């Protein structure tokens, strides 16, 4: 049985990459049955395949999620914080599973997604690539080994100039992994950039630095800087395909699960060995 997929944010960078991967049958049992974007998207009304630069697939880009969601087994949402926070409660009413890649949600928007997950299964991850999810494991493990040994943690991320949130959701997740390994609360220890006469760096701090420019897909480095040595753990995305492949794998995995909020660690069956 094919798994029917609706993509929200279909005219965006990730939406188009997802449609290209579906057209190439990266996950052969997934089938695109709906594509949604905003009324002011230039691609509105066009065929989603053509808009993504692949063959005509007879799926027009619509603005009406309610019209296409009933045909879906799973809704993949890479729109934006406002869109995702609005779509999650609607998918909960319609009993449609979701895969959410959107980052930069406010606490209120996050709460809307969390409430929806009481009714439907949702995979939600700031980064769907296998590589970054392996990195999350490595960072937490490294932090656990270095805990209380005087290594300062700094996280540097680089993205394209059009990215709307900073630091990236992935950088925050890496910070969370590092904080967990050190036994720290990230909210109490995060420092976002530095300027002016800052004084000495506090020991109990995780620094975040967001670089924006050009068309960088997404680079992340976590540094553990000690006396006489620095450990750097890095990931570099060379296209958006790794994110899209992860999202499609998550879509296949989530259908038929019990309601709840799931992570890519579960989808990818990363052992999480401590
Ligand atoms: P983008 O701006 O290129 O695309 C977003 C698309 O969504 C646009 O076409 C926009 O018109 C549309 N949109 C916005 N609100 C909508 C709504 N309410 N209903 C329908 N369509 C709506 O952005 P992008 O680079 O594709 O990234 C999208 C989101 O995914 C961002 O939050 C980004 O940080 C995140 N992202 C996550 C991952 C991951 O692996 N989880 C990877 C890359 C990007």
Helical segment tally? 10
Q: Based on Cα principal axes, name the global outline.
A: elongated
CATH homologous superfamily identity of the largest domain:
NAD(P)-binding Rossmann-like Domain
Residue windows where pLDDT falls under 50 for at least 5 positions: none
Average of pLDDT: 96
Question: Would you summarize the structure shown here?
Answer:
The protein is an alpha/beta fold and 274 residues long. The protein is built from ten helices and twelve strands. It has a seven-stranded parallel beta sheet, sandwiched between helices. It has a five-stranded mixed beta sheet with strand order 8-9-7-10-11.
Main attributes of the structure:
274 residues; alpha/beta; Dihydrodipicolinate Reductase, domain 2; 2 domains; 5-stranded mixed beta sheet; 12 strands; elongated
How would you sum up this structure, described in words?
By secondary structure, the protein is α/β, with parallel strands linked by helices. It has two domains: 3-128 and 240-267, Rossmann fold; 130-236, Dihydrodipicolinate Reductase, domain 2 (2-Layer Sandwich). 35% of the residues lie in helices and 23% in strands. The protein has ten helices and twelve strands. It has helices spanning 13-23, 48-51, 65-68, 81-94, 107-116, 130-146, 169-182, 186-189, 241-254, 264-267; strands at residues 3-8, 30-36, 61-62, 74-77, 97-100, 121-124, 152-159, 190-192, 206-212, 219-225, 230-236, 260-262. A seven-stranded parallel sheet has the order 3-2-1-4-5-6-12, with helices on both faces. Helix 4 runs parallel beside helix 5 and helix 6 packs parallel to helix 7. The radius of gyration is 19 Å and the shape is elongated. Bound molecules: nicotinamide-adenine-dinucleotide (NAD). Nicotinamide-adenine-dinucleotide is lined by residues 8-9, 11-15, 36-38, 41, 78-80, 83, 101-104, 125-128, 243.
